[in-house]
Specification:
The complex is a heterodimer of chains A (249) and B (497). Chain A has 249 residues and is an alpha/beta fold. Helices cover 39% and strands 29% of the residues of chain A. Chain A has one domain: Rossmann fold. The two termini of chain A are 30 Å apart. By secondary structure, chain B is an alpha/beta fold. Helix content of chain B is 24%, strand content 33%. In chain B, a hairpin with a 2-residue loop joins β3 and β4. The longest helix of chain B is centred in the N-terminal third of the chain and has 15 residues. The radius of gyration of chain B is 22 Å and the shape is globular. Classes of the chains: A alpha/beta (249), B alpha/beta (497).
């Protein structure tokens, strides 16, 4: 599904990713763990196509298409979804309007009919019930005045509605209480299937108790220095990043 | 098909970029000779078969205008205007005496303007078209269409007349209701008020007249579509709306013009009078041709709009969406004379490419406990310059007066400008005045967030800008709100990336 080869990327001339190689087969969930400054967020931004991140070497293919050649919106409608670490506020833009516009952009790309406001509300409300979100969050402006937990749940609502092929979760667990963490995990788990892959970026092993990954990769200084099964996350939790960094050095 | 859908479709049809109202209609026109002098003023007055008091009124304005200087305090620049190099009267030759005679070319123009078909039929005088309520169940809109200098047709007139409402061309009102014209014309904006108002008073050719009798709630939206079509003409329309005691009316105006290399002058005057407990809502979607990307051509929109809240508890609400014109110079104002009267001003002004806008409002608090609210949203893109200029003046008698002002500016790109020039003069100890202002950019992370959800760059800008303007757009009547949202997006096309 996703194949990253020897990826080098820099921002403002500063090299952040230094030859990152990673492959996520369809249907698998992989976790990327790493200390602060290891390049975790840069990885998610490069994959989603944020401006300002310069890819200097390497390739990323999504299915059989060259992901790096695409605009962010093209990646989105092709099935890439980035759940933001800090979801952005859009003052005055109604959440329902935003979500429906996004959903219809994706549906158009898939050759499906656009859905009208009434159909959308049905769909969204059903999902919101599962996420324990009050109905009025649809009326409020996107993320404006949302608590940290509400913002993350709003990201999960978007992900569930857009049903991507590849979800990038950028520290979605940060700042969440146990209940919210469970809701996030349930959403990801509910999407699991042969056509869904995810890259879960996190500091902590905690999230991976709920979303059990097929593979765990350790990122350090812009490269994967160790990969393993879910047990690698436990190992990290016990011994810290330092031991693995020292062993890899 | 529901008229709402028609309007939406008409708007969508123009959504593929550029100024889509730039067409020119080929109609035989009747022109006065080029230039301006007393004879032209007499010519216009004679064409309109006006009583001698009105001719004298015009001449007085003209003579006063000669003594005045072009205002130069606004933050706009343009080459001097040659007032002798324009036509001051241009009218379709086939006079609109009977609706059956409306030129088919005109009807095509309405279609292009997106005037709902039902109203078009009425404007064309299709029999019975104005009698039955709208099939969609929607409130019908009565439309007055002003083409260059002449009001060509007004719909739903008879239906409105049942409630005693007068809605007609102002030139017609001069003939049919001279007492109202004599009483109110120039009573809010005097002939010598300012340079362009004086010019307008001398040469105004047409516009709409509305009178809502005591206690009547106008059953439909009243609307005027202004269109400058002929070359080298100025448009000087004059609108007068009187809401008698306890009455309510909502009025909309829309404006477009063909694309031309030359600059054309639009100097209108709008006067509103609200008596005791009366309420007037005046909405504008201004989409005059803005000139090309290099600043060539476009309309100079130099307009004086003022409301007198003469009655106790009267209320006037101005809502404007200014997307067009090369230069906008416009300050819809409220004289809050009656105790407890209320003035509101909601504005969105966009400047893209080389457009310049100097716009805002004046709120004069004269009566006790008068209240005013000002919400201004300025959006600058390209090399556009956008100035909010406002005055809140509170007289010693305006005890307990309140004002709240909010001015927000949004910048797109790094070559545009946003300026805020608020004046506050408070002479009353018990008054309370609040002013809030912000300036922001469309943040890169906002754009990226939208795009990462599948929205194109332009849709993302449109959505963010519409969100920024939401407080103003929600004040517009529903059909206009849809049109305005699309317009905002079209006006900003190509401004990012």
């Amino acid at each position: 599904m996703l194949k990253i080869e020897n990826l080098h990327a820099s921002i403002d001339g500063k090299s952040i990713l230094n030859g990152l190689t990673l492959e996520i087969p369809a249907g698998e969930i992989h976790a990327v763990m790493g200390p602060n400054g290891s390049g975790k967020s840069t990885l998610s931004y490069v994959l989603a196509g944020r401006e300002g991140y310069e890819v200097t070497e390497g390739s990323v293919t999504f299915g059989d298409i060259d992901l790096l050649a695409m605009e962010p919106e093209e990646r989105a409608v092709a099935g890439v979804f980035l759940a933001f670490q800090a979801p952005v506020e859009l003052p005055g833009v109604g959440n329902a309007n935003f979500l429906r516009t996004a959903l219809n952009a994706v549906r158009r790309a898939k050759g499906e009919a656009e859905i009208d406001a009434i159909q959308f509300l049905k769909l969204a409300r059903a999902r919101m019930k599962v996420l324990n979100m009050p109905d009025d969050m649809l009326k409020r402006p996107v993320n404006v005045g949302f608590s940290g937990g509400e913002k993350k749940r709003n990201e999960m609502l978007q992900m569930a509605l857009l049903s991507p092929k590849l979800a990038l979760l950028d520290e979605t667990d940060s700042g969440l209480d146990i209940d919210a963490l469970k809701l996030v995990s349930d959403t990801v788990n509910s999407l699991r299937g042969p056509d869904f892959s995810a890259l879960v970026i996190t500091h902590y092993q905690r999230l991976l108790n709920h979303i059990v990954p097929d593979r765990v990769h350790v990122l350090s200084a812009g490269r994967i220095i160790k990969s393993g099964g879910p047990e690698l996350a436990q190992e990290l939790e016990a011994s810290g990043y330092g031991a693995i960094q020292a062993a890899a050095a | 098909m529901a008229a709402v859908t028609e309007t939406i479709e008409a708007v969508q049809a123009v959504n593929d970029g550029g100024y889509k109202w730039g067409f020119e209609t080929d109609i035989e026109m009747d022109f006065a000779p080029k230039g301006l002098n007393e004879d032209i003023v007499r010519f216009i007055s004679a064409k309109k078969k006006e009583p001698s008091w009105l001719l004298d009124w015009r001449l007085k304005a003209y003579r006063h205008w000669l003594t005045m200087e072009v205002p130069h305090w606004a933050a706009v620049t343009h080459p001097p205007i040659d007032f002798q190099d324009a036509y001051y009267y241009a009218a379709p030759k086939q006079g609109p005496k009977s609706l059956d005679e409306v030129d088919p070319e005109l009807l095509k123009t309405y279609a292009k303007l997106g005037i709902p078909l039902k109203e078009q039929a009425i404007l064309a005088g299709v029999e019975g078209a104005g009698d039955s309520p709208s099939d969609s169940g929607r409130m019908p809109i009565a439309v007055d269409a002003v083409f260059d200098s002449v009001s060509v047709a007004t719909s739903y007139k008879e239906r409105l007349a049942k409630d005693g409402i007068i809605f007609c061309a102002i030139s017609e009102a001069v003939q049919t209701h001279p007492e109202l014209i004599k009483q109110y014309l120039g009573s809010v904006v005097p002939q010598g008020d300012n340079y362009y108002a004086a010019l307008n008073s001398a040469v105004f050719t047409d516009g709409s007249f509305v009178y809502i009798p005591k206690g009547v709630r106008c059953p439909m939206e009243l609307s005027t579509y202004f269109r400058i079509n002929a070359k080298s003409t100025g448009q000087f329309e004059r609108t007068l709306i009187i809401a008698d005691e306890g009455s309510t009316v909502s009025y909309l105006e829309g404006c477009t013009a063909p694309m031309r290399d030359e600059n054309q002058l639009h100097a209108a005057v709008v006067e509103l009078v609200a008596l005791d407990d009366a309420s007037i809502k005046y909405s504008t979607v201004q989409n005059w041709y803005p000139g090309d990307a290099e600043g060539k051509g476009g309309i100079y929109n130099f307009v004086t709009k003022r409301a007198a809240c003469r009655g106790k508890r009267s209320k006037v609400s101005w809502t404007q969406v200014e997307t067009g014109s090369a230069i906008t110079w416009k300050y819809p104002s409220c004289l809050l004379i009656g105790d407890d009267s209320v003035g509101e001003f909601y504005s969105v002004a966009i400047t893209n490419n080389r457009q310049q806008a100097d716009t805002g409002t004046k709120m004069f608090h004269i009566g006790a406990r008068t209240r005013s609210t000002i919400v201004s949203k300025g959006i600058s893109a390209g090399r556009g310059q956008n100035t909010y200029r406002g005055l809140v003046k509170i007289s010693p008698k305006a005890t307990g007066a309140r004002n709240f002002t909010q001015c927000d500016s949004l910048l797109i790109g790094d070559q545009c400008g946003a300026h805020t020039v608020p004046y506050i003069e408070n002479r009353c100890m018990t008054a309370k005045v609040e002013h809030e202002a912000t300036t922001s950019r469309i943040a890169e992370d906002q754009l990226f967030y939208c795009r990462s959800r599948g929205l194109s760059q332009e849709d993302a800008v449109g959505m963010i800008v519409n969100g920024f303007c939401r407080e103003v757009l929600k004040e517009l009547p529903m059909e206009f709100a849809v049109e305005a949202q699309k317009l905002l997006q079209i006006s900003l096309e190509g401004s990012v990336g």
